[in-house]
Amino acid sequence: MMKEATMKKIIYLLAFLSLPFALCAQNSGDDFGIWTSIEAEKKIDKKLTVGMEAEYRTRNDSKTSDRWSLGLNASYKLLPWLKAGAEYTLLYDNNKEKITYNSDGSYNNWRPSYWGIRHRFNVDLTGSVSLGRFDFSLRERWQYTYRPQVTTERYDFDNSWWEDTDVKGKGKNVLRSRLKVEYDIPHSKVTPYASVELYNAWNLQKTRYTLGADWKITKQHEVGAFYRYQNVKDDDDPNGHILGLNYTFKF
Prior knowledge:
This protein is mainly beta.
């Protein structure tokens, strides 16, 4: 039987391994953040499962709150090797500040960071196959996110005053392709895994590389930890090193 100390060692190891990346991020321009989540899951029957998840993320070397979210999801096993899923998530984001400049290089406008809501919908298909003690899965997910219009303030340096400004509503479609492999350790409740995920919106926007482990404490309680590196193609956003911790309750 896997002892509790073993999972703690795995979490500590992931945290220890992430420290060099966090220090490197401060010197290289990469960011470091912590993602935590709590999920409740209910198996309705042999094929249908529903759940709810709350998540909190940080950025700016984990000194700034990045977002809160609350999601509802469902999955249905179409075939023994094929599963369909759907999810709605309400996101509450801390949007980064934005500065514009005049042609001579002087400040034009400054819009401070502000909190705003986004609505996200996911639909996906996941196929899986087992080879020995290795379990491989490929998930194809269509993701649509809508940001409603919001009014916030910005400072006009030319006129030295604050003014209201509208951030227009915007919708975005993304195809997320994730390949994941898990390893079944004999007589162990810990399952290590690795994955790579591509974000495409007519072109490759970012890639996520993840290494982690899940520990099934009992039939109802499961905890996990992971390290993730996020490579972003947009020059305005930094690459990121992420330490993640999650807890799942099944009833």
